[in-house]
Design goal:
Largest sheet of chain B: 7 strands, mixed
Shape of chain A: globular
Number of helices of chain A: 0
Oligomer: heterodimer
Shape of chain B: globular
Number of strands of chain B: 12
Structural class of chain A: mainly beta
Radius of gyration of chain A: 14 Å
Chain lengths: ~120, ~110
């Protein structure tokens, strides 16, 4: 069966350190993978998209890697700050062929950055 | 910036009521989606639409229907609300990255 697993429900990290979140998937062949941030009581906010032919993507303090052989994406936040505390979701396209850009989401990792 | 607006932040309805959740986007996106989010279950796709009057079932469509009469508006309908439909409902529209609304927290009593 198809599965997306974010390997930690919760991750605590000291301010200034690099946070690394993992997303593993099975029985998918996604053309791209996305990461979102969600704050309590709010909708998720799009952060980054990485395509299957891209190994790495960066945006400010964020870095995403995508290994289609390992079926894994890593999401890094460098120099983490308490304001980075949130739940982070990975999502895979499961495209229906109708150009719908349909995504399936992992359950998320709740990151807490401790001052 | 793309904006997705959900009509209500909080809603309380009685069992058996017909419930309408409205979603409007302002970026002319063709694709729109309805998810529900529950603790421990994550985001689950209810229905999506890739064009006006087009709809596709997601993973959990039972007990729900949708309407897309105009490109900017995608409505989720609970035909006869039940307590197990108490949840956070999130609408999204997309070109690639999704833009989500703020969500509607629905409680069915």
């Amino acid at each position: 069966s198809q599965k997306i697993e974010q390997n930690s429900e919760a991750l605590n990290i000291q301010e200034g350190k690099t946070a690394t979140l993992t997303c593993n998937y099975t029985n998918y062949s996604p053309a791209y993978l996305q990461w979102y941030r969600q704050d309590p009581g709010r909708g998720p906010v799009f952060l980054l998209l990485i395509r299957e032919n891209e190994k790495e993507k960066r945006k400010e303090r964020l870095k995403v890697t995508f290994d289609t052989t390992l079926k894994q994406s890593l999401f890094h936040i460098t120099a983490s700050q308490p304001a980075d505390s949130a739940t982070y979701l990975c999502a895979l396209d499961v495209g229906s062929g109708a150009g719908s850009y349909q995504l399936t989401f992992g359950k998320g990792t709740k990151l807490s950055v401790i001052p | 910036d793309v904006k997705v607006t959900q009509s209500s932040r909080y809603l309380v309805k009685r069992t058996g009521e017909k419930v309408f959740l409205e979603c409007v986007q302002d970026m002319d996106h063709e694709n729109m989606f309805w998810y529900r989010q529950d603790p421990g279950l994550g985001l689950r796709l209810i229905y999506f639409s890739y064009d006006v009057k087009m709809k596709e079932k997601g993973d959990i469509p039972e007990g729900y229907s949708v309407s897309r009469e105009k490109k900017e508006r995608f409505s989720l309908i609970l035909e006869s609300a039940s307590t197990n439909q108490t949840s956070m409902y999130l609408c999204a529209s997309s070109a690639r990255g999704y833009t989500f609304g703020s969500g509607t927290r629905l409680t069915v009593v």
